[in-house]
Amino acid sequence: MLERVKIENLSKGNILAFGEFYKNELNNSSLEILSPLKEVAQALNKKLILLFLIGSLEDIKNLEEIKRSIADEVWFVINNELKDFKDDLYTEVLIQIVKSSQPYGLFFPATKIGMSLTPRVAGALKVGLCAHVNYLEVKDNQIVMSRPTYGENIIAKLVSKSSPVMATISLGAFNIKYGEKEPLMKEIIFPENFSWSSKLKIRNFIPSKKKPTKLSTAKVVVSGGRGLKNKETFQKLFELAEILGAEVGATRPVCYEGWVEEEKMIGVSGVTVKPKVYIGFGISGALQHTVGMENSEFIIAVNTDKEAPLVKMANLALIGDAKKILELLLKKLKN
Amino acid sequence: MEKIIVCIKGVPEPGSVKVDPKTHTLKRESMELILNPNDRSALEMAVRLKNEYNMEIVAISMGPPNVIPLLKHAYALGIDQMVLLSDRAFAGSDTLATSYVLAEAIKKLSPFSLILMGLKSIDGETAQVPSETASLLGIPSLTNVKSLFMEDNKWIAIREIKYGEEEVEVEGPLVCSVLPTAFDYIRPPSLKRLLEVKNKEPMVWQASDLNLDSQRLGLNGSPTQVVEVIEKKIETKGVILEGEPEELVEKLIEVLKEKRLIKN
Amino acid sequence: MIKYSFSEEQKILIDLVTQIGEEYIKPYALKWDEEEIFDEKPIKALADADLFGIIIPKEYGGLGWGNFEMCLAVEKLSYYCAGVTTTYAASFLGSYPFILFGNEEQMKKYLPEIAKGKNLCAFALTEPQAGSDAFAIKTTAEKDGNFYILNGMKQWITNGGIADIYIVIAVTDPSKGARGASAFIVEKNDPGFSVGKKEKKLGLRASVTTELFFNDCKIPKNRLLAREGMGFIVALRTLDFGRCGVGAQALGIAQAAMEVSLKHATSRIQFGQPIYNFQAVSHTFAEMAIKIEAARALVYNAAKYVDSGAKDITGISSIVKCFTSDIAMWVTERAIQMMGGFGYMRDYPVQKYFRDAKCLQIYEGTNEIQRNVIARELVKHYR
After folding, report:
1. Which domain holds residue A166?
2. Does B108 fall in a domain?
3. B204 in a structural domain
4. Annotated active-site positions of C, please?
5. Are residues A185 and A224 in the same domain?
6. CB contact under 8 A, C44 and B190
7. Is residue B126, in this structure, part of any structural domain at all?
8. Domain count, chain C
9. Are both A24 and A153 inside the same structural domain?
10. How do residues B68-121 score in pLDDT, each as one tens digit?
């Protein structure tokens, strides 16, 4: 059912998007990144290719999802050795594809796997790599990528002088779009003498016991920052989330303080959320955080500082001590 | 004795960040630098492995001379040798240029059996340098490693991925980025070593010591470049309420009811 | 307020203890107190930082420093939690008997492990009927060939059960009264040694206090410290060296209490102004400062006197212990008063300082006993 194409015959100059599979399960972020890339590809008059490295076609559970994607083509590299994620082998496979098909751009979702793999590929190709891009556009016939810079309330727009253009794209920053036309599906045939060996041997896998966070798709988000003063108070957000049917989010400093695990981080290197209601307790609203929540429908900010960016952004801002207000709110809601 | 190399980074003390208005890169030389918090677990892992397998640890840091106290801190934690990679030509390096310098310095320290780094720095947050350096060295890399030990001269790593934990066997040398939450206890510096390191200085290597290709260094050697910056102007868009906590909470409850998040 | 000039080494020491206090103690101190939990993490941090070796000679793995550096460490640590400090400082009471009275073999065997913090110490003198009247101890040690057999019990022993090494004072010859006791080293795994229940305390709740039991506890004869009959000399001399440490502990608590309440007083608005503007309040703080500065000068000077090798340290170390623990009690009580309701609530740390300070007037010789000692030394001195 797949058209088989020898690697040397692949079409050239495309935009490639890495599709993440793990244990035959498609990671949705691979479909998210297609949305901005499709627009970029159209503006540059290029084809958008979704590229998968998999163990075997039979085991794929979400083939229908892939068929509905907005990619122009889907390329598969199929080999039993690819069923586990092996950083070095995956890199080697991608390098062969880049060398043969000379893509214009190569993009990855900023998942743990994506972030392990992309720098290896960029290093081997000696090309530039942008991290956690949350906006893409085409200007003067080149791809311009945006992300907030550190320490300033500034969005930096970056280009890559090297080819292909490479970047990892922030999780949750884009919505999945579906296409009307089923993409062409191709299997890439590697030369007989290609070595599928890896220095890594995956000996064992223990599935995560933690429930995966639903933060990126949550309808209501209650989020906390340093203004909550300590870990104990931050933990009370979980009680509030329980009452409101919300998910808990956090700012970067709070995650680094260890008040909550990093999966809860909203912003540049964390998750992007678009809930109907977002409540921020003790969050002043550094750009690193606000890029991850600015598209929330209704924003409530609780903060002592009237001039704080999040207070200004908010539809409703309450000026006061976040810790006190949170505690009082919980007390009233429980009665 | 087998060698572990730990790469550490000086990052700005939150609140003391200074940015070059032209290049939009950090002006590290004029800031108070602290050890990147995520590097602490890399150092802790190195010291634990040293004690377990009787290895030698070299800590490398690339940056201006104000990272020397951080190397000394690492010494007090238990590392054996300090190397500072410092040259004006390195300023403004992106991850590719940084990885290139690190990889060449690491080559000069050969042979080694393990390179450890923090998962990511809290300033750049790219998490790219560990894998990129490994790639330039042509050796395997693993990220998000929470535990590491040896079995029959091979490294066994437990790494965290989105879906769970994998146990990976790999022959060294390799690069691992260490999960910030890998340890529930991280040691403080030793008083004896703090007193000892007072009179020690790190080795300093410049571009010329490493025979580096100047085309691949600093801002010019960095393929990713800032072309434009946009300041986010925020205008007040909603209602701002002040008052006693009681009143504010009443208002909040009212809004939550309106939004049907709580029952009347 | 005096800015003392410390040597570079001493500054490194103070910085390190501060770092440990901030990171390993401060965030948890109220929780340990509230839940009466002994947590080994801060102890492990102190061990990894080499802080158990301050007074232990270099040749036995320590830093070879003196009583003054011990006081600096104890003062700073107590600023964060006097409970954790109690666990830590018991190791000084465990080290001094070796340093002052141990033979080469004993020092070689025990001091390096104490210096590393691998072995915690406990000092066991007090018994149910022998508190202030220490000479009334009933625990016996009977010689049996190459062994001693210990029988009896000890009460309110800091680090009971968590310590690896116990310095135990027991009667070897009841006919000789005060000269009939001896000091022994007991290890936690010695046969016949066991630990009773953990006591519930008013303060210092992050530390562990228990009873110890000796039921035909058989130990080799080389566990005897000094000679038979020297038991009380070992004990009292050890306590002489330890008392400046109690003073430093009191100082740390008082300092913390003053800082927390001062911050409150300067920011708490009543009648339209910070309460610090009212003289009744500000004078109270002035009085706190007077007492704390005087106490610090006293502790530092006395510790340096001890380090000078002076023999007559009994009186001055009692003066230090009495004065500083009394001012710590006064300061912490006033600190609560200055904070009013906030001071009384267990969400704030001043009430903990108050409860912790109380023990310092009682343990290691009550302040009443200290005054007896001072009075006795006084007439010797001015004879």
Report:
1. 3-189
2. yes
3. yes
4. 364
5. no
6. no
7. yes
8. 3
9. yes
10. 999 999 999 999 999 999 999 998 888 999 999 999 999 999 999 999 999 999
Residues of chain A found within 8 Å of residue B26, distances taken between Cβ atoms: 150-151
Does A243 lie in the same domain as A180? no
Interface of C with B (CB under 8 A): 8-9, 12-13, 16, 19-20, 23-24, 41, 44-45, 48-51, 53, 63
Given B127, B180, B231, which is nearest A153 (Cβ)? B231
Q: What is the pLDDT of residue B15?
A: 67
| In a domain? residue B207 | yes
The answer to whether residue B188 neighbours chain C at the CB level (below 8 Å) is yes
Q: Residue B202 is part of a domain; what is its CATH number?
A: 3.40.50.620
Average pLDDT estimate for A244-251? 93
Q: Residue B24 is part of which domain span?
A: 3-216
- B198–chain C Cβ distance below 8 A for any pair: yes
Q: What is the mean pLDDT of residues A207-218?
A: 80
Q: Is B37 on the interface with C (CB under 8 A)?
A: no
C24 and C115 belong to one structural domain: yes
Q: Which residues of B touch C43 (CB under 8 A)?
A: none
What pTM was estimated for this model as a whole? 0.90
Residue C13: list chain B partners with CB under 8 A.
191
Q: Which of A55-64, A109-118, C262-271 has the lowest mean pLDDT?
A: A55-64
Q: Which chains touch C (3 or more CB pairs under 8 A)?
A: B
pLDDT of A211 strictly over 90? no
Domain closes at, from C196, C214, C230: C230
Total domain count for chain B?
Answer: 1
ipTM tops 0.95: no
For residues C149 and C239, membership in a common domain is answered with no
- Full DSSP string of chain B: --EEEEEE-EEEPTT---B-TTT--B-GGGS-EEE-TTHHHHHHHHHHHHHHHT-EEEEEEES-GGGHHHHHHHHHHT-SEEEEE--GGGTT--HHHHHHHHHHHHHHT-S-SEEEEES--TTT----HHHHHHHHHT--EEEEEEEEEEETTEEEEEEEETTEEEEEEEPSSEEEEEPTTS-S--PPPPHHHHHHHTT---EEE-GGGGT--GGGSTTTT-SEEEEEEEE------SEEEES-HHHHHHHHHHHHHHTTSS--
For residue C350, pLDDT beyond 90: yes
The predicted-structure confidence for B135-173, as pLDDT tens digits, reads as follows: 999 999 999 999 999 999 999 999 998 888 999 999 989
